[in-house]
Specification:
Blueprint (H helix, E strand, L loop, with lengths): L1 E6 L5 H8 L11 E9 L5 E8 L2 H10 L1 H8 L7 E6 L1 E6 L13 E8 L5 H15 L4 E9 L3 E8 L2 H10 L1 H8 L5 E5 L7
Antiparallel strand pairs: 1-3, 1-4, 2-3, 2-9, 5-7, 6-8, 6-9, 7-8
């Protein structure tokens, strides 16, 4: 799981968006499973892009052989002021199906980046399985938990509509956060033309 965040000035948002629409060549890359993204609801100058790869080898091969050519064609590098890229190993899905099966159906993407102390990682992972898989049901299409070194986790979930997500936020989120000790995360409104499936 690759999580990308970009800061984009107001005058460059349209150019950034157009450039993001030009990543369709990813479909032809070995091991690529899907990509979605959109603008942060609480920070309209932040774009978030989530891409999923079959394995680290496939992703590294893409970075070595295709990435620079694609970004060069789009000229996207000139459209943002800051970028952060983090790679996580997906350790399990939240819900019954793989998150990529819903990349074409989701309207909203909630992402939380969490740091967990080493001696609490096993407990944290169990809580994610127990709490989120049972608690995130109404309107959540699917989700995934990713892990990287230093006890960092990424919790991503896809939602079918605003009402479903709002009901979850109003009724279930506070209790789930208290039990799981994760941050509230950010909510991104998915841009259909950014999706590469």
């Amino acid at each position: 799981m690759k999580w990308i965040k970009c800061q984009v000035n107001e005058e460059n948002k349209r150019s950034f968006s157009k450039a993001q629409e030009r990543w369709g060549e990813l479909r032809h890359c070995s091991g690529f499973m899907g990509q979605i993204g959109g603008w942060n609801r609480n920070d309209t100058y932040e774009a978030g892009i989530l891409s999923v790869w079959k394995d680290l080898y496939s992703y590294q091969s893409f970075m070595q052989h295709q990435h620079d050519e694609i970004i060069g064609k789009s000229d996207q590098g000139s459209t943002y002021t800051n970028i952060s890229v983090d790679i996580y190993e997906k350790i399990f899905n939240t819900g019954t199906k793989d998150i990529t099966e819903f990349f074409c159906k989701g309207k909203l993407l909630r992402v939380a980046d969490c740091s967990v102390e080493n001696d609490k990682e096993a407990g944290f992972e169990q809580v994610q399985k127990d709490i989120w898989n049972t608690g995130m049901t109404s309107g959540m299409l699917s989700g995934a938990i990713g892990k990287r070194q230093s006890g960092r986790y990424l919790a991503a979930s896809i939602w079918d509509n605003e009402d479903s997500h709002q009901r979850y936020a109003d009724k279930e989120l506070a209790a789930l956060l208290k039990e799981s000790e994760v941050n509230t995360g950010s909510l991104f409104e998915l841009h259909p033309k950014w999706a590469v499936i």
